[in-house]
Amino acid sequence: MSPAPADELGYKPLDGGWGWMVVVGAHISIGFAYSTPKALSIFFKEIQEELGASYSEIAWISSIMLAAMYAGGPVSSALVNRFGSRPIVILGGLMCWASMVTASFGTSIIYIYFFIGVIGGCGLALNLNASLTIISKYFLAKRPLANGLAMAGSPVFLCFLAPLNQYLLDKFGWRGSLLILGGLMLNCCVAGALMRPVNAPCKPISGAYTEDGGGTKFLDLTFFKDRGFIIYLIGNMMFIFGAYAPIVFLPAYAIDQGVEEYAAAYLLSIMGFVDMFIRPGTGLVANSKWIRPRIQYFFSFAMIFNGTCHLVCPLLKSHALLVAYAVCFGIGFGMVFALIFECLMDLMGNERFPSAVGLVTIIECFPMLLGPPTAGLLVDIYGDYKYLFMMCGSVIVAGGLFLFVMNTCNYHMLEKEKTAKDRHQHQDNQDNQDNQDNQENQENQENRDQVSILEL
């Protein structure tokens, strides 16, 4: 049984109404946030040849962008709690537009790192955290479904961005493609406009800023006293380390196996197409009365399935088998990302979630930063992609098994602690009752003694 804290927000979330328009906005915002670092891999070969970069150097582009997106979590959470989601998402969209347009004039890999990686990643951080936070304000009973629909933005956008980027690359080169992609990312500003604030009294959220502008702790380190949070964080970091390198290098791996360039790019679209249906479907399953109390175990299974797909990939050489891998990859990846933030909400509750997600994302930026370049380094050293997939798959499977075992132990310990607490409380009540009885008996005895004296 999941030990989620009570969601005492001080008001009842709408669980519908304008909330579904907010989900549409979050779908767009999260779609760009997660799909852009993956879809940019279509340009990597051309950028690599023009700027003379190695595999590990080119992998740093997506890695820095994702790391900046995650590292910006606490700042984004603080800004959202101070100003609300709407202006922050609009600001994030403008930053993404500026980063892509400026990067199109780049003449060195360091220039690309800074503008696409750092500036673009910070813009994506504003989009991601603001979207996740406002969903937790609008939904409670239907929250897993709302999260699943919003997180489905990533595969939906990846599904059309991958072939679109390949088309733009052929027509305009990577520089012209970045200009057009920057214009497309202005749609995040439209998404932000849909995020109408919730007009309800909210309690101050620790670890960020209160609505009246009063500052509290920037990072709430008290989360590290929560055993469930620590378990979630360790397992999640293991997943993040191995999650993105297979996506970044999948088109290049397919081309290396003799697959035509457009067909290689479409592997990402196939993965995204499957993923877009899996995420809301997973949200529906997670919302059921059988799965929701056991959602942490469901998350563990999704991670193990995802990692197993990568371990099998080096055995697949033909285009047909790589399509099958892309389908299974889409299933596993979609399941994990439909649950990844819902599990954190389940552990921390709606009230503490904005601070918790900020702390989680800034810690996750380190495995995010190191994962793809480490995988690229393996390709540089061995000249073979199979070691990349084996490393990523092993780390993810180990993370899933860790979550399963440790959550089982944690729930057992929580049950024992609850039993001991109930027993202690019962003993205290019994002692209080005995003391009360003794006091009453003493008072009665004193009354009888007084009566006897009066009779004498």
From TrEMBL:
Key word Protein transport present: no
Pfam families tied to this protein: MFS_1
Domain named Major facilitator superfamily (MFS) profile: residues: 21-411
PROSITE patterns registered for this protein in UniProt: MFS (PS50850)
Superkingdom of source: Eukaryota
First and last residue of the signal peptide: none
Low complexity biased stretches: 430-444
GO molecular function: monocarboxylic acid transmembrane transporter activity; symporter activity
Primary subcellular site in the record, as a coarse category: membrane
Bias (Basic and acidic residues): 420-429
Region named Disordered: 420-456
Membrane topology recorded in Swiss-Prot or TrEMBL: Multi-pass membrane protein
Gene3D superfamilies linked to this entry: MFS general substrate transporter like domains (1.20.1250.20)
One cellular component (GO) term of this entry: basolateral plasma membrane
Keywords, ordered alphabetically: Cell membrane, Membrane, Symport, Transmembrane, Transmembrane helix, Transport
Residues that span the membrane, as ranges: 58-80, 87-105, 111-132, 144-164, 176-195, 229-250, 262-278, 298-317, 323-344, 356-375, 387-406
Catalytic activity: 4-methyl-2-oxopentanoate(out) + H(+)(out) = 4-methyl-2-oxopentanoate(in) + H(+)(in); 3-methyl-2-oxobutanoate(out) + H(+)(out) = 3-methyl-2-oxobutanoate(in) + H(+)(in)
Subcellular location: Basolateral cell membrane
Family classification: Belongs to the major facilitator superfamily. Monocarboxylate porter (TC 2.A.1.13) family.
NCBIfam families, A to Z: 2A0113
Name used for this protein in its record: Major facilitator superfamily (MFS) profile domain-containing protein
Organism: Lates calcarifer
